[in-house]
Amino acid sequence: MDELWRSDACGTLRLADAGREVRLAGWVGRRRDHGGLIFIDLRDRSGVVQIVFQPDDPELFAKAEALRGEYVISVKGKVTKRLEGMENPKLATGEIEVVAEDLVVLSEAKTPPFQIDRPGDVDERIRLRYRYLDLRRPALQRNMILRHRVMKAARDFFDENGFLELETPMLTRSTPEGARDYLVPSRVHPGKFYALPQSPQIFKQLFMVSGLERYYQIVRCFRDEDLRADRQPEFTQIDVEMSFVGRDDVMRMMERLIQRIFAVGGIDVNLPIRRISYKEAIERYGSDKPDLRFGLELVDVTDIVRDSGFKVFADAAKDGLVKAINAKGAARWSRREIDQLTEQAIEWGAKGLAWIAVGEGGSLRSAITKFMAEEEIAAVLERLAAEPDDLLLFVADRPDVVHTVLGRLRVVLGEKLGLIDPERYEFCWVIDWPLLEWDAEQGRYVAAHHPFTSPKPEHLELLETDPGAVEALAYDLVVNGVELGGGSIRIHRPDVQERMFKALGFTPEEAHEKFGFLIEALSYGAPPHGGIAFGLDRVIMVMARLDSIRDCIPFPKTQSAMDLMTGAPSDVAPEQLEELGIRLLPSARGGKS
Fold first, then answer.
1. CA 192 → CA 183, 188, 385, 514, distances in Å?
2. 588: which of 125, 184, 302, 584 fits an S-S bond (Cβ 3.0–4.6 Å)?
3. Can you list the alpha helix ranges (DSSP code H) found in 508-593?
């Protein structure tokens, strides 16, 4: 007969349970000896409850004295109301305690490398090395529970709206036009490789060709790219595709999904979500994923300074831009603080950062105003709505440099000036993206999203004559400066898809070698279709107000793509390499061939 290790979860007991006999199981948190009584904080996934051991049972009391942190125990006892004034309002179970009558130690534990209940400032590498202990922390458990509930809400929504959850292959073909693939050698086909999917893009389009009409999948994806706080080499997408739809159909459906998902975290999403064009996002906010919780918009002063005596402005105005941000109330900043902003601007690609501080009575503090005419200065101040105590910051350069630098500077200023409300969520769709972008290194156009994105029908004829002017039926969903997901209406006609490949510089032979199966599939009759993919990890990160997606992924990699817990990536035996027909270069194994 199986033992009964627990009748209730620790965090579920309340004052209404007083008088009940219960059996609880979990991990020992803090242990305190107070005047002949021993108090144990017992923790499981549901929360914490206080256990009291009294000295009137010497054998039980001795067992309790031997308990240490992170021991796994099972305790039987009676739920009792705490004494007046001894309640703990910080705990959901803070009005009661359990007076122990029996104790079973299920397993002992070594002293952990950090305190589970109060980790303090623990190095992330230590936490990742002992991730199974890190995941015991209530904060991380809340993130994992939120992740589960979001996935369940998404599945419920899709099921209610006629979507099918369908799987796509994990071992597929390596294709260009994206990040680097993770490659998997084939033992059965020596010298050939599979690729792990960067996304199920082609396969979900094939589902539409197959007539399945509405597809979704919560799917693992893999990209071998440089990592940062919101990127991992393996990540999870909420992947969606729909047939017989236009851009508005997809966006409206996904707004309802996002509203349902964020409601799980108690966050209201007002519909419809605002839409702004890619051009507007770049020109006003310097970013294709703008944070709309604050102002500090970029202001163009190029026309004013075109003939400026300040040569930096005049030169940039000939074939570039001069733009500025009015950091209201920042004129009081020290020269050192402004120099730090200048250093950041240079690090991001600017040649420098010009500035004008407006003082009381309209007095100006600046190194550039002596080169500018009075009417020019007055026009700049008026354009920027400058008032006393404002700091005007200027970047003059190529448009891409100006927007990138001021866009990043805008966020720094928003934080520094306390303009960003962490409790606020501002969503927007960024639409009317360029279909293609010029890559100077490769000397050709590349897809702004991917090669299967449909151009706007009215721009189709520009594919051959002016590719850079073609806009796409693409859309990204952004919240608080974070891209949650992106999608598009797809190309469903083989002739248009072949024209797209040609615009990307593929020969017909190259296009058919890489994507022949897709072009062939489209030739058998494909419906108009479109979809989107949301980064689940980023969604959770935003909802939980985290700084990194590593805290909402159960077993993440480090910034250098290492798994510190398992030691992956690792060496493999020479016999395995031999079987796969692989020989390592000397540099790949510390000089060993």
1. 10, 9, 63, 15
2. 584
3. 508-522, 536-543, 574-580
Q: What are phi and psi of 31, to 5 degrees?
A: -125, 130
Residue 593 has what pLDDT? Answer: 38
Phi–psi pair at 278, nearest 5 degrees: -55, -45
Instruction: Kindly state the tokens that stand for 56.
Output: 């009137």
Token readout for 78 is 């009676």
Q: What CATH fold (topology level) applies to the domain 142-274+427-552? A: BirA Bifunctional Protein; domain 2 (3.30.930)
Whether the link from the prior residue into 569 is cis, omega within 30° of 0, is yes
pLDDT per 10-residue tile (average), the chain, 593 residues: 79 96 96 90 96 95 95 97 93 96 96 84 91 95 97 98 97 80 93 93 96 97 84 95 98 98 97 97 97 97 95 94 96 92 95 94 90 94 95 96 97 96 96 92 88 95 93 97 96 94 89 88 96 97 94 93 93 91 79 43
Q: Closest Cα to residue 171, out of 162, 183, 161?
A: 183
Biggest distance spanned by C-alpha atoms of the chain: 93
Would you list the DSSP string of 126-162? Answer: HHHHTHHHHTTSHHHHHHHHHHHHHHHHHHHHHHHTT
The structural domains of the chain, with segments of one domain joined by +, span 10-107, 142-274+427-552, 294-416
Residues 6+ apart with CB under 8 A from 81: 15, 18, 95, 96
C-alpha–C-alpha distance, residues 520 and 533, integer Å? 25
* pTM to 2 decimal places: 0.91
Residues 6+ apart with CB under 8 A from 38: 31, 32, 52, 53, 61, 64, 65
Express each pLDDT in 367-423 by its tens digit.
Answer: 999 999 999 999 999 999 999 999 999 999 999 999 999 999 999 999 999 999 999
**pLDDT number for residue 95:** 96
CATH superfamily placement of domain 294-416: GAD-like domain (3.30.1360.30)
CA 269/CA 559 separation, integer angstroms: 32
Handedness of CA 192, 193, 194, 199 (dihedral sign): negative
Which whole-number Å values give the CA distances from 378 to 98, 312, 386, in the listed order?
74, 19, 10
As a whole number of angstroms, the distance between CA 271 and CA 259 comes to 8
User: Does domain 10-107 correspond to CATH entry 2.40.50.140?
Assistant: yes
User: Per residue in 54-78, pLDDT tens?
Assistant: 999 999 999 999 999 999 999 999 9
Q: Is the dihedral of CA 136, 138, 142, 145 positive or negative?
A: positive
Measured distance CA(22)–CA(6) in Å, rounded = 7
